[in-house]
């Protein structure tokens, strides 16, 4: 029997919130005590005509979690010499359309003004720490919209080993985050932590495999399978999370997985990338159990 094609999300009745600019009450970035409190602080380098690598600047990104505003800036000073006052002074408000995609009719929305965090839910934002790589472009917003589309497709075609999607958080007509089910712990924490209760690694790996197989049946590859992207629920059932790199087969990847877990990855979304991830997960589980040197 031929398998049924995946269900594609259908449009629903929708009244679009007005896309607005930042509120005039957002006069400045949130106060932070040190550089460690920034969302991202990275040094930028470039190669000169003589193939020498030269420092260019230190880039800063700061998220205001209360207003969802993002601030960014740069200084031609090495990180070790930057003072917090200098970093704060260089920041400017990032346009919302560079970070957050506009809402659309098929999205289930919760207004940020009405949102109250729940114990069993988790708010996932765009990967704002990467803004320094794509400043003055809408790449982050476009990538986050693709991630939302993946969640919507999985929601229409659910699987117990894939993260549960609960809708989008909206502010000023833009999606500032996705609401997901919260799980007990990562696979890394379960395997390497102090919890000594019995753990069925074979069943766990089979569950991860089943989740990946379901993604593939939808024409998707995860492209970042590793122990930090697998959660365990209260019954030790594995659940694959983080759909930031999950794309249709053949699409370009702007991130090639996680260092240490992406050796041999293709630069496009592919089954091969997931097969590499599964092989590494299996070996990691066996090593941690003492079955491999």
From TrEMBL:
Pfam families, per database record: Pkinase
Gene3D superfamilies: Transferase(Phosphotransferase) domain 1
Taxonomy, superkingdom: Eukaryota
Domain annotation Protein kinase: ranges: 60-293
Signal peptide residue numbers: none
UniProt-recorded name of the protein: Protein kinase domain-containing protein
Source species of the chain: Neonectria magnoliae
């Amino acid at each position: 029997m031929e398998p049924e094609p995946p269900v594609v999300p259908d449009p629903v009745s929708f009244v679009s919130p007005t896309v607005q600019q930042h509120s005039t009450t957002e006069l400045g970035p949130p106060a932070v005590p040190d550089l460690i409190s920034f969302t991202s602080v990275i040094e930028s380098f470039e190669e000169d005509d003589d193939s020498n690598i030269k420092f260019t600047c230190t880039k800063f990104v700061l998220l205001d979690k209360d207003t969802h505003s993002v601030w960014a800036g740069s200084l031609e000073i090495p990180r070790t010499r930057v003072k917090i006052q200098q970093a704060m002074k260089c920041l400017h408000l990032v346009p919302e359309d560079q970070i957050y995609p506009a809402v659309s009719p098929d999205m289930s929305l919760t207004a940020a003004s009405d949102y109250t965090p729940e114990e069993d839910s988790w708010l996932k934002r765009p990967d704002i720490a990467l803004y320094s790589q794509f400043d003055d472009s809408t790449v982050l917003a476009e990538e986050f919209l693709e991630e939302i589309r993946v969640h919507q497709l999985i929601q229409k075609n659910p699987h117990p080993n894939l993260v549960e999607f609960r809708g989008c958080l909206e502010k000023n007509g833009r999606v500032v985050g996705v609401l997901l089910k919260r799980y007990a712990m990562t696979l890394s924490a379960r395997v390497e932590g102090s919890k000594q209760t019995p753990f069925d690694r074979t069943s766990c790996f089979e569950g991860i495999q089943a989740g990946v197989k379901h993604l593939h049946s939808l024409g998707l590859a995860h492209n970042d399978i590793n122990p930090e992207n697998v959660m365990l629920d209260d019954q030790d059932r594995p659940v694959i999370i983080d759909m930031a790199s999950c794309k249709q087969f053949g699409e370009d990847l702007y991130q090639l997985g996680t260092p240490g877990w992406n050796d041999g990855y293709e630069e496009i979304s592919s089954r091969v990338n997931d097969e590499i991830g599964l092989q590494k997960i299996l070996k990691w589980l066996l090593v941690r159990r003492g079955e491999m040197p």
